[in-house]
Amino acid sequence: MTDLVVRRLLIDLQPPFARDWCGGDAFSTAFFNALSMSFPFGEQFFIDAVRDAVATLPPEVQEQHKADVRGFIGQEATHRRIHSLFNNHLEKQGLVDRWTARASKRMELMEGADPRHALAVTAATEHFTAMFAEWLLAHPAVLDGAEPRLRTMWLWHSAEELEHKSVAFDIYRAAGGSDEWRTRWFRRVTMMFLGDLMRQTVDNLRQEKQLWKWSTWKSAARILLSRDGLLRGNLAGWRSYLRPDFHPMQQDSSLSTRWLADNRAQYTPVGAAPEAAAAR
Are 188 and 242 in contact (CB under 8 A)? Predict the structure, then answer.
């Protein structure tokens, strides 16, 4: 894995944006809004899961993973902060985040459990985000017409998700996590994550009075279910996680490398330490 660089995104998220910011497409807007609602809580959960699991490792093993963990925490903390700013605008627009409360209540059940359970959940969810990230970088036309700063935000986030996709997985392996737990949690996360995502998306559409429009579901079918759509096009990637020999680095990351190289003017490297400290 290349060194994980924490980047400060050079966009201003203080000014408000249009309710239909994703090119006027109701489904795309509601879908991305739903995803963003999950990130502040989710990213903090991932940070805590990795940090707690690393603390159980022998000192020499901790040292082997130190740089990757520091970079992972720094990037995820930055994502959490950026999406919190984005979500503040959604709240002002009247959208209600019901995902976070459900997820928080669910994760309370894991308190006191073996930290490898939370880490298995993190590794599974990181695979989902990596699949989504690669798909979005391969299909940036989904964001055609989107407000430029928000388009940049999503593509930057996607590029960094592909960069650190193996950190939680590698810590899970280092902690002695089994394939049985890993695949069992992946199946559970599949149901929980997709269920929560679609439930919040539908709720967003209902709040915007766009739920029962033909154009909304035509867009949903195109984005999710077309041959190279987000769900249908990632079935092979989903199955790959269930293989005993799976490793996240088997997934191509060239789109991430290319976007970061082509868009250096959109961010500045800041190092992991400040954001990692802020996540404590």
Answer: no
Supply the DSSP string of 130-196, one letter for each residue: HHHHHHHHH-GGGGTTB-HHHHHHHHHHHHHHHHTTTHHHHHHHHTT--HHHHHHHHHHHHHHHHHH
- Boundaries of every domain in the chain: 25-278
Contact criterion met (CB below 8 Å) for 4 and 153: no
Write out the H or E segment, with its range, that includes residue 268.
strand 267-269
**Helix, strand, coil percentages in the chain from 3-state DSSP, rounded to 5:** 70, 5, 25
* 212-244 pLDDT per residue, tens: 999 999 999 999 999 999 999 999 999 999 999
Measure the CA–CA gap between 82 and 79, rounded to whole angstroms.
5
123-160 pLDDT per residue, tens? 999 999 999 999 999 999 999 999 999 999 999 999 99
